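Q: Please design a sequence for this.
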């Protein structure tokens, strides 16, 4: 430990260098949105059965190109109608579980 980093900092740096953990500069909300949208776009339209739905990166809407059915990417998830951002929802659930266990 000759580089003046605290023990925890040195261990975290070692874990990151070996690839055991990864620090992502991308916000958690962006990761969550991208994954949920990927799931939605792989689904067929619940209204007309079209093989795939459409989504744009910068928008919250999911839609069908055939029948124009629309929803938001959070529909059917715990994030639907939430006042919080998806990452804040996840963190609040994690904190609640940690506090009560």
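A: Design:
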């Amino acid at each position: 430990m000759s580089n003046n980093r605290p023990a925890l900092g040195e261990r975290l740096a070692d874990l990151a260098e070996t690839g055991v953990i990864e620090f992502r500069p991308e916000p958690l909300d962006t990761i969550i949105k991208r994954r949920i949208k990927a799931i939605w776009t792989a689904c067929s339209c619940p209204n007309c059965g079209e093989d795939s739905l459409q989504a744009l990166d910068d928008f919250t809407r999911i839609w069908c190109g055939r029948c124009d059915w629309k929803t938001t990417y959070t529909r059917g998830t715990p994030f639907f109608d939430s006042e919080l951002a998806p990452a804040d929802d996840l963190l609040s659930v994690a904190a609640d579980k940690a506090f009560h266990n």
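Q: Thanks. Anything notable?
A: The radius of gyration is 19 Å. DSSP finds three helices and three strands in the chain.
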